[in-house]
Amino acid sequence: MSLGIRYMLLSIVSFSLMHLCVKTIPDIPVVQTIFLRSIFSIVFCYIAIKQAKVSVWGNNKTFLILRGLVGMFSLICFFYSIQMLPLGTAVTIGNLVPFFTLFLAFLFLKEKIPYIKWLFFGISFAGVLLMKGLDKELPTLGIILGLCAAFFTATAHFVVRKLRDTDDTSVIMFYFPFITIPCMLPFIFTEWKTPDAREWLFLLFIGITTHVGQLFLTKAYKHEEVKNISYVYYLGIVLSFIYGITFFGEFISLKSSVGLGLVILGMILNVFV
């Protein structure tokens, strides 16, 4: 197992624990959760930058700012989808990232994507549509936000790949909270809810697991090609269903399972065919 894949495994486990924590504190506004998570992250990123003895502002500033923006949009969409959908469903839709990555490579890098890959994408996307069509209890907005989260996450990964040869890992990570904090600040004054001791504990753990996940994700893409580590995403899906059943009693309905099955089938075919 390559170093890049090991980093991605650690990243997925960390992010799955973060998803669990977000689901556990539904009374805390999403913007507040993201703001506090970013405060935690920017401190650790700044310390890492000082230890690395590199410029906090980085080199490729345009792509660094873009990394911060798309990362912020991804987190907002995904956190809201987690609150609206069963955890396993939200994570499954959010993990359509590899397909959007292929689309971006086709669009911006002019890479030739085999027709069979588009077919697999169609199978997964049809699964999303079927899932909503069969299960009227699933909110449309939650599904749309999940798809948007996948698209923005793929864009963030795409940008990280562009930055790996120009900027230090700590600088790439720094721009995420650096952009997010001022964008979230205006909403904090209108949506703030004072957490209790239990909620503070989960918010702290969200900060830790997100930072660890981002760290290993960035390292993974600096050491390995995107196509070689995409399959690791499916560990996150498995963990999300385990958490959903164990902690929230979220048993997926038969109607939803048909669509989810197509989504996962398309993902698996994309990796192994």
Describe this entry's structure for a reader:
With 273 residues, the chain is mostly helical. The chain has one domain (3-272). It has helices at residues 3-24, 30-52, 61-84, 87-94, 97-108, 115-134, 140-163, 169-191, 197-223, 226-229, 233-248, 254-272. The longest helix is centred in the last third of the chain and has 27 residues, at 197-223.
Main pleated sheet? none
Whole-number count of domains = 1
Structural class: mainly alpha
Radius of gyration: 18 Å
| Total DSSP E strands | 0
Considering DSSP H and I runs of 4 or more, what fraction of the residues is helical? Answer: over 70%
Which range does the strand content fall in? under 5%
Order of helices and strands: HHHHHHHHHHHH
N-C termini distance: 20 Å
Apparent shape: globular
Mean pLDDT: 86
User: What are the segments in which pLDDT stays under 50 over at least 5 consecutive residues?
Assistant: none
Query: How many helical elements?
Result: 12
In terms of topology, how is this protein built?
Elements: H1 3-24, H2 30-52, H3 61-84, H4 87-94, H5 97-108, H6 115-134, H7 140-163, H8 169-191, H9 197-223, H10 226-229, H11 233-248, H12 254-272
Helix pairs in contact: 1-9, 1-11, 2-8, 2-9, 3-4, 3-7, 3-8, 4-7, 4-11, 5-7, 6-12, 8-9
